[in-house]
Specification:
By secondary structure, the protein is α+β, with helices and mostly antiparallel strands. The protein has helices spanning 2-24, 31-42, 44-50, and strands at residues 63-68, 81-88, 91-99, 104-106. The chain has a 4-stranded antiparallel beta sheet with strand order 1-2-3-4, covered by helices on one side. Strand 3 (91-99) and strand 4 (104-106) form a beta hairpin. 9% of the residues are buried.
Length: 115
């Protein structure tokens, strides 16, 4: 009887422990999503100015965000460096360079420090 209870506990712990650990582990956000979040958080007025202000609540234009690294790994570490573009109706209306490590966002004509 004691062996049966011990076996049941071992099986139960072995079954539920990975699920519990995954639930308790901090969730890691996509680095690409982090780049978009930084632009939206640090440049809200700029984004509002890019939209057709009187019509933005009712227009049916598609809005899309694109994120990419400007180059692959090599001499410069591109792990935290992204280019974020915002398009309305298929036309790019805004572009930013983002460093997610330092939480910097640079618009057109601005410089971004790459480490």
């Amino acid at each position: 009887m004691l062996k049966t209870i011990a076996l049941a506990l071992i099986v139960g712990i072995g079954t539920f422990a990975p699920a519990l650990a995954a639930e308790l582990a901090p969730t890691e956000q996509s680095p690409h999503a982090e780049a978009i979040r930084l632009v939206m958080q640090l440049r809200p007025a700029e984004i509002r100015n890019l939209e057709n202000a009187p019509h933005r609540w009712h227009d049916t234009e598609e809005r899309s965000w694109q994120v990419k690294r400007p180059f692959g790994p090599g001499i410069v570490d591109s792990t935290h460096y992204f280019v974020v573009t915002y398009s309305i109706g298929g036309k790019v209306v805004g572009t930013w360079q983002v460093n997610t490590r330092t939480h910097q966002v640079a618009g057109a004509g601005e410089r971004l420090r790459i480490e």
